[in-house]
Amino acid sequence: MTTASNKYAVPALDKGLDILEYLVTQEMPKSQTEIAQGLGRNPNDIYRVLVGLEARGYLVRDELSGRYRLSLKLYNLSRSISPIDQMRQCALPYMEDLAVNIGQSCYLAMLYQSQTMIIVHARGHSPISLNMSEGSLFPTMTTTAGKVLLANSNPAVRDMILERDADYAKLSKNKRTALINELEPIKQNGYLAAPSPFIEGATDFAALIGRPEGKVIAALAISPLKSHWSTAIAQEELHTRVVTTANKIAQQLGDL
User: Fold this and answer.
1) SS (H, E, C) the chain
2) What is the pLDDT of residue 225?
3) Which tens digits make up the pLDDT trace of 166-197?
4) What is the pLDDT of residue 87?
5) Tens digits of per-residue pLDDT, 56-68?
6) Which residues, at least 6 apart from 77, have a Cβ–Cβ distance to it below 8 Å?
7) Distances (CA, A) of 190 to 88, 157, 193, 209
8) Within 13 Å of residue 103, how many CA atoms lie on the same side as its CB?
9) How far is it between the farthest Cα atoms of the chain?
10) CA 201, CA 195: separation in Å to the nearest integer?
11) More confident call, 230 vs 213
12) What is the pLDDT of residues 2-52, one digit of tens each?
């Protein structure tokens, strides 16, 4: 923490935020002792904070095990944040229509803290389909949707994201230049087809929603999963339908 932040620090608030951020990363409920160990604190230091978070509805405590897990309160609060909520509400009907027509799942991603976050997922009707959990975070530089977002961000945001990327820091000067050059045609086209980081041998496709360097941009993407239960559609047709759907969402959003 900086000197300025130390001056105005609120210990109880810091403990509360530490607990919430820690539990977000945990798949299973945790006891008071386990949470304290995970945070490097004494169990007694966090007792009152845990009680307060439970009383406010942020945590749920199992009566038998005494373990804590996050409630849906944070999720519900996040959904009320505009323009993300507006984007979700507008995009989902079009995404569901796309998923049904192509027999594949699709997802919508936006930038969040220099990473690419899945904010909406529409599942195809095939018995086997890719599930992208809403709220999941992925490296921006190495995902297809992330590169579309990166290419269409204003230069200041793009540079900030790259500066925070550990993989980018490891690149040589020539490779950094090559990456920047790679982003320009993505920006010009408004879409990108690239090998999927999620499914081996598959090609992801992502299209921009919004205007390049706009205040709010998103990327609509698919990671086609081949199976005996899904209808085979030519790659060019998939790309056309994704771009068409992205444009419909953008038109509906207007000047968001």
Assistant:
1) CCHHHHHCCCHHHHHHHHHHHHHHCCCCCECHHHHHHHHCCCHHHHHHHHHHHHHCCCEEECCCCCCEEECCHHHHHHHCCCCHHHHHHHHHHHHHHHHHHHCCCEEEEEEECCEEEEEEEECCCCCCCCCCCCCCEECCCCCHHHHHHHHCCCHHHHHHHHHCCHHHHHCCHHHHHHHHHHHHHHHHHCEEEEECCCCCCCEEEEEEECCCCCCCCEEEEECCCCCCCCCCCCHHHHHHHHHHHHHHHHHHHCCC
2) 75
3) 888 899 999 999 989 999 999 999 999 998 88
4) 87
5) 999 999 999 999 9
6) none
7) 20, 18, 11, 9
8) 14
9) 62
10) 7
11) 213
12) 444 566 778 899 999 999 999 999 989 999 999 999 999 999 999 999 999
C-alpha–C-alpha distance, residues 244 and 133, integer Å? 24
Question: Amino acid letter at 248?
Answer: K
